[in-house]
TrEMBL record, chain A:
UniProt feature, compositional bias: Basic and acidic residues: 77-86
Pfam families in the record: GatB_N, GatB_Yqey
Species this protein is from: Stereocaulon virgatum
Superkingdom in the source lineage: Eukaryota
InterPro entries: Asn/Gln-tRNA_amidoTrfase_suB/E (IPR017959), Asn/Gln-tRNA_Trfase_suB/E_cat (IPR006075), Asn/Gln_amidotransferase (IPR018027), Asn/Gln_tRNA_amidoTrase-B-like (IPR003789), GatB (IPR004413), GatB_Yqey_C_2 (IPR023168), Gln-tRNA_amidoTrfase_suB_CS (IPR017958), Gln_synth/guanido_kin_cat_dom (IPR014746)
Compartment(s) where it occurs, according to its Swiss-Prot or TrEMBL record: Mitochondrion
Record keyword Mitochondrion present: yes
Protein name (database record): Glutamyl-tRNA(Gln) amidotransferase subunit B, mitochondrial
Catalyses which reaction(s): L-glutamyl-tRNA(Gln) + L-glutamine + ATP + H2O = L-glutaminyl-tRNA(Gln) + L-glutamate + ADP + phosphate + H(+)
E.C. numbers: 6.3.5.-
Record-linked PANTHER family: GLUTAMYL-TRNA GLN AMIDOTRANSFERASE SUBUNIT B MITOCHONDRIAL AND PROKARYOTIC PET112-RELATED, GLUTAMYL-TRNA(GLN) AMIDOTRANSFERASE SUBUNIT B, MITOCHONDRIAL
Keyword Transmembrane: no
Described function: Allows the formation of correctly charged Gln-tRNA(Gln) through the transamidation of misacylated Glu-tRNA(Gln) in the mitochondria. The reaction takes place in the presence of glutamine and ATP through an activated gamma-phospho-Glu-tRNA(Gln).
From TrEMBL, chain B:
Source species: Stereocaulon virgatum
Family matches, as Pfam families: Gta3
Signal peptide: none
Residues passing through the membrane, by range: none
InterPro entries: Asp/Glu-ADT_sf_sub_c, GatC, Gta3_dom
Glutamyl-tRNA amidotransferase complex subunit Gta3 domain sequence ranges: 23-76
Descriptive protein name: Glutamyl-tRNA amidotransferase complex subunit Gta3 domain-containing protein
Length: 595, 152
């Protein structure tokens, strides 16, 4: 029998069988195949790659660390009701006798045009010592002039952290001598800060320690306004080169209550606070670029003890990893001292990236007495309720809400949602929203559940489009592939007018500068999907099966699924762009008797 | 009647209580205070003894001041207008910051705020236009101040 005759026979047989089988959709095999046939075509899973992002190294590291810890947690065993990780059993036994307590003091540079008490520009770009006023250099007789616009990002930050805003707050002087502080004191808000009693909630997806469960609330004691110091470049042995551009730049200091008890939770807290500040446009830049620094207070106390131990302060940690490593090192040091019968001295310690132990910066001998006093030159600050209300109601959506929306309503994974949130200063997320909204409003598919569509948009905006920008090493702009073009490509794909491979090709063409409308490109380049019928799929599949009996054997008997993928690939090759991967898979599964 | 003064501040420096009531000031304390104030340590024993004596009488003065009953009195931080009217005049409202709020725009569909790109940056303060911060620097390198931190 010729192939054509076979095909005809199949066609006839299948069409009659289809008529007969109208009532047999209840037959699970055929029904599932039918369902599969109607699913939107996602681009081949095998080709979906996780595009590495150029400048979110720390975030990718966080995701990797989380994945590793989850794997370790799975490996741990429950014995006598206590968790024991299979890694470092001895170390854990020792640590289990002590409770760690950590408090954070985070300094964040506010996003303002001018400094806190002078009209000098707050920009750090440009020539050294150009954005400096007489007051910044503490010339005798110079007076502070509060730049009220500073309150806008400051209040937004405090509101983002759910703080209560004090109507009246005051400024104090904190005295100490250092070459980066011309006045000999820093203006801060020690006695009466402008915001108090806030909180930040950390969830397991924020990367908190497994021991902290699903979520943990960290209370924030206060948020206060203060000045930044100059940039010092130390040349050994004792020369310092000073750039005063940064002196007087507004900072907020966020002080948490000592409620953190696990190392990963501490770094997760810093990360979360940074994310919130970025979302409300309060930060100039992130920790990676020096816009945010953390001081950490660490103490240990015997397990079960009511009182906290003596704390030490580790200053100027400038990365999330440094926060974790410094706490681990300091905890180990304190436990070693206490177990040897010693006593912890309340001192300030420092940490450098390649260290294994914190080192003492200032001890009791040189202990600094800051001699806090109210600054008599600065009148009290009065913040009106209408300003607080205005900024509160117009506050941008916070990361937790966006994350919930993206994962629940748009069906993205936590990983993808967080990536989307953190890329390109929010521009990637805006682009995603535009494309998604257009897809929805264009009624691309009126009977399709939205989550499926959003997931596709998410994949394409994050991985496909992201991959192009990465390969080209250029920063993301929403105009390179206009939202409309992206919508057209995805619509065509979704309506099965083109295959996944073609869609990717179209994206590449538009990215590289093709300005034609998508429909025109499809028509001119003849990229339309010639829909193969089910019969043609079956024919192709059967031929392949007949010609490769040994591979079939390996799949059916030995479950070597790699060979199965080979069949799919072969069909796609033979189909020359007209074979859809998911349909090929479905047919092959049916014919090979796989589930 | 006003020919002879009836009272002098000097009286507050004189002890009317026995000096045993006051703890001695140690050399360590004196040096600590001098370091905090970035003042040079005494050059000789005589000078140090004089410093401690002066400090003691100043502390007697402080003690006399501390005799005043300040129960329920808020400390004065500065002499300024503390009336309600002054407070309302100085409070920061939406109107106070309207110009700066107008320099921002909302983008995207989630209320994201950023500074508008079409608004020019704030003008440089006229008072600083012709002033070079480095003009008074005793030592500089290019546009950087140079400080010898060993000279403490």
């Amino acid at each position: 029998m010729s192939k054509a005759a076979l095909a005809d026979g199949l066609c006839h047989a299948l069409s009659t069988s289809r008529l007969r089988a109208a009532s047999s959709w209840r037959n699970p095999g055929i029904a599932s195949l039918n369902r599969q046939w109607n699913l939107p075509i996602h681009h081949a899973r095998a080709l979906q790659a996780d595009a590495p992002q150029a400048n979110d190294e720390p975030f990718r590291k966080q995701l990797k660390d989380e994945a590793r810890r989850k794997r370790q947690a799975v490996r741990s065993t429950v014995k006598d009701g206590t968790f024991r990780s299979s890694v470092g059993k001895e170390k854990d036994a020792r640590l289990a006798k002590w409770t760690l307590t950590v408090g954070l003091e985070i300094h964040a540079q506010l996003n303002t045009e001018q400094k806190l008490f002078s009209t000098a520009k707050s920009s750090e770009n440009g020539e050294p010592n150009t954005n400096v006023s007489v007051f910044d250099l503490a010339f005798p007789g110079s007076q502070p002039e509060l730049q009220k616009a500073t309150l806008i990002p400051a209040l937004r930050a405090a509101l983002g952290l759910s703080c209560k805003i004090n109507r009246e707050s005051r400024f104090d002087r904190k005295h100490y001598y250092y070459q980066d502080q011309p006045a000999g004191y820093q203006i801060t808000q020690y006695y009466k800060p402008f915001a108090i009693d806030g909180r930040v909630t950390l969830y397991d997806h924020d990367g908190i320690a497994i021991e902290d469960g699903h979520s943990v609330d960290i209370a924030i004691k206060q948020v206060q306004l203060e000045q930044d110091t100059a940039k010092t470049n130390l040349q050994p042995p004792s020369t310092a080169f000073l750039d005063f551009n940064r002196v007087g730049h507004p900072l907020i200091e966020i002080i948490t209550h000592p409620q953190i008890h696990h190392v990963q939770t501490a770094s997760a807290c810093v990360r979360k606070i940074q994310a919130i500040l970025q979302a409300v446009n309060a930060l100039t830049t992130g920790m990676e670029h020096g816009g945010l620094r953390a001081d950490v207070n660490v103490s240990v106390s015997p397990q079960g003890s009511e009182n906290l131990g003596q704390r030490t302060e580790i200053k100027n940690l400038s990365s999330f990893k440094a926060v974790e490593d410094a706490i681990v090192a300091e905890r180990a040091r304190q436990i070693a001292v206490l177990e040897a019968g010693g006593v912890i001295a309340g001192e300030t310690r420092g940490w450098t990236l390649s260290s294994t132990e914190t080192r003492k910066l200032r001890g009791k001998e040189g202990e600094v007495d800051y001699r806090y006093m109210p600054d008599p030159d600065i009148p009290p600050l009065f913040i009106s309720e209408d300003l607080v209300n205005h900024l509160g109601t117009s506050l941008p959506v916070l990361p937790d809400s966006t994350l919930a929306d993206l994962t629940t309503n748009s069906g993205l994974t936590y990983k993808d949602a967080k990536t989307l949130l953190s890329l390109d200063d929010g521009e990637r997320l805006d682009y995603f929203d535009e494309v998604r909204f257009s897809c929805t409003s264009k009624r691309v598919s009126s009977h399709e559940p939205w989550p499926a569509l959003d997931k596709m948009v998410g994949n394409w905006v994050l991985h496909e489009l992201g991959g192009h920008f990465n390969a080209a090493s250029t920063p993301f702009t929403p105009s390179r592939v206009p939202a409309e073009s992206m919508v057209d490509i995805l619509a065509s794909l979704h309506q099965n007018r083109i295959t996944g491979t073609t869609a990717k090709r179209l994206l590449a063409m538009v990215f590289d500068g093709d300005k034609r409308a998508i429909d025109i490109i499809i028509r001119d380049e003849k990229l339309n999907l010639d829909r193969l019928s089910r019969e043609e799929y079956i024919l192709m599949a059967r031929n392949l099966i007949l010609e490769n009996r040994d591979k079939v054997h390996q799949i059916q008997q030995k479950r070597q699924m790699g060979k199965f993928k080979w069949f799919v690939g072969e069909m796609m090759k033979q189909g020359k762009g007209n074979v859809e991967a998911s349909k090929a898979e479905a047919i092959l599964k049916e014919l090979l008797g796989l589930d | 009647m006003f020919e002879k003064p009836s009272w002098s501040v000097k009286s507050l420096f004189e002890s009317d209580k026995s000096s045993a009531a006051m703890p001695a000031i140690t050399q360590k304390q004196l040096h600590h205070l001098l370091r905090l104030s970035a003042l040079p340590l005494p050059a000789s024993e005589v000078q140090e003894a004089k410093m401690i004596k002066d400090l003691k009488s100043q502390l007697k003065f402080v003690q006399a001041i501390q005799q005043v009953d300040t129960e329920d009195v808020e400390p004065l931080q500065s002499i300024r207008d503390e009336t309600k009217e002054a407070e309302m005049e100085n409070e920061i409202t939406v109107r106070t910051l309207q110009k700066d709020i107008d320099k921002e725009e909302v983008v995207g569909r989630r209320g994201r705020i950023r500074r508008r790109t079409d608004v020019p940056a704030a003008a440089t303060d006229k008072r600083m236009k012709d002033w070079d911060p480095l003009a008074q620097a005793p030592k500089k390198l290019g546009r950087l101040f140079v400080v010898d931190t060993a000279k403490d």
